[in-house]
Design brief:
Blueprint (H helix, E strand, L loop, with lengths): L14 H4 L7 H29 L7 H36 L9 H12 L4 H25 L9 H19 L11 H10 L12 H12 L17 H20 L13 H27 L3 H4 L1 H9 L4 H26 L7 H8 L9 H21 L9 H19 L6 H10 L3 H4 L12 H12 L15
Helix pairs in contact: 2-3, 3-4, 4-16, 5-15, 5-16, 6-14, 6-15, 10-13, 13-14
Length: 479
């Protein structure tokens, strides 16, 4: 049985006994960690930046290529600098203090490494990095609290977080508070505009009335209905059946568009069409995304086992999860907003609160903790910026970088002491960037603090299929 000692009592071990048992040289360990992080970071960011370049769907200019190459090199320097700094401060603090304590075992070296590394990265990317690591760190802290019986898991907790935060964000959206100082939209509001539609924006009424009136007059005019273009002398063939079906579908859509629309509603055409069109469009988008992801993830199986791969890609119940969530959210939000406009006779930004809270129930079909926490942090960031703009909240210099460093320290602390509480995807990321070094650090001395660290490590290694083997580049490390 492992003897448990107070976490305030330091652990007296050397660097080679804990931090780098694969080599007795601190210098070799630091150089090896940096070189491996450099290679893996370059691979990662080359893929990321090239995909971003391809997604622009245009031939890149010389300036685009120059900017892409510069971004790859700068981001690579940032991430590899974190690996170098972590290894450097891990050994340096031990030499200065003569031992390891609960802070210097991982958290403090990670924090100090992040302070220097984040200064290398482009300022435009610092906020994105902060939001990501804060997202993962929040989940990690919650898992740590649950493992200590300090809190209990909340049923549908992610749905609750998502619904409340979306209600606040959509209220901002309807109030017209989604513009930055330079007149551009925050990326979150661009997503909201795509999901719930642009008509829920503030002061959209004037832009929709004319198109609605024109369409109703044009549709109800028998001379301009376009019905003659569908006439055909073709006999009753498959083509004739298809054209008749399309004509009936077109007439049905026209009838639905011309149904009742309340004067307070900012959208063109009828409320029924507005609701069904939004739900149907987003259902199709969600289904398409899921099928594309399944195809990419099972790309190799399409060649080795085509039949099994097709069944995995197409005939899966999970394929409908994202589609039902997106379609349900858009349809319910639009429907509740229209209902409230009819009930009150006016359009109010505060209609977004009950509409989003009810629409958020659809998140039960796709209860992703990562998505819920990302929305929460985006809401907090946007609210903080609005508070600064109105003079309600003080602007704290360097707060974004401090939050990034603190979150990174929490994640590295959990990776060393409590890996079972860390998100598995982040563990795999650390394993890749460190070339296996994160798994090979000797955690046996840490068991004295009573966290069952080695037991947690074995469970995580098994669950993620990661091997405790140090890879090496250029002779640094061992096979």
């Amino acid at each position: 049985m492992v003897q448990v000692q107070s976490k305030l009592i330091p652990i007296v071990v050397t660097c080679s006994e804990f931090a780098h048992p694969w080599t007795s040289s601190c210098l070799e360990a630091i150089a090896g960690c940096y070189l491996c992080a450099l290679v893996e970071s370059f691979r990662l960011y080359t893929t990321v930046y090239l995909l971003a370049l391809l997604m622009k769907r245009k031939i890149p200019t010389k300036q685009d290529l120059k900017r892409t190459i510069g971004g790859i090199l700068q981001s690579t320097a940032f991430l590899s600098g974190t690996g170098f700094g972590y290894s450097f401060f891990l050994c340096t603090l031990r030499r200065l203090l003569g031992n390891y304590n609960i802070l210097t075992i991982s958290a403090m070296p990670a924090f100090l490494a992040s302070v220097f590394a984040i200064l290398i990265e482009r300022p435009s990317r610092r906020l994105l990095l902060c939001l990501y690591v804060s997202n993962v760190a929040t989940e990690t802290v919650w898992n740590m609290a649950v493992s200590r019986k300090m809190v209990h898991p909340v049923k549908h907790g992610s749905v609750t977080i998502f619904s409340i935060c979306m209600a606040i964000l959509l209220m901002y959206y309807k109030k017209g508070l989604h513009k930055n100082k330079d007149g551009t939209d925050d990326s979150m509001f661009s997503v909201l505009r795509f999901v719930v539609g642009p008509y829920e924006e503030k002061n959209y009424v004037a832009r929709s009335t004319c198109s609605d009136t024109f369409y109703r007059e044009h549709t109800n005019d028998p001379d301009s209905s376009g019905g003659g273009s569908w006439r055909t002398t073709t006999p009753n063939t498959t083509y004739h059946i298809v054209t008749r079906a399309l004509r009936l579908y077109r007439k049905l859509i026209q009838k639905i568009k011309c149904l009742d629309r309340h004067i307070a509603c900012p959208h063109p055409f009828s409320c029924i069409y507005y609701i069904t069109q939004g739900a149907g469009t987003m259902f199709g988008v969600g289904l398409s995304i899921q099928l594309i992801l399944n195809t990419v993830l099972n790309f190799k199986r399409l060649f080795t086992s085509p039949k099994a791969a097709v069944n995995t890609i197409l005939f899966r119940k999970k394929n409908l999860s994202l589609a039902l969530f997106l379609g349900g959210f858009s349809g319910i939000f639009r429907g509740i907003c229209c209902l409230l406009r009819r009930s009150t006779g006016t359009d109010s930004p505060y209609h977004a609160i009950p509409a989003a809270l009810l629409a958020g129930i659809s998140f039960k079909k796709y209860p992703d903790t990562t998505v819920a926490l990302y929305v929460m942090w985006k809401m907090a960031q946007i609210t903080y910026n609005l508070g600064i703009d109105r003079g309600v909240l003080p602007q704290v210099p360097g707060f974004t970088m401090f939050l990034y460093c603190l979150s990174t320290a929490i994640l590295f602390h959990a990776a060393l002491l409590e890996p079972a509480n860390l998100r598995l995807s982040y563990w795999k990321f650390l394993h890749t960037i460190s070339a296996g070094r994160i798994t090979c650090m000797n955690r046996v001395p840490l068991d004295k603090w009573g966290l069952e660290t080695t037991k947690q490590l074995r469970a995580v290694l098994k669950g993620t299929n990661t091997d405790p083997i140090v890879k090496y580049y250029g002779g640094f490390g061992c096979s």
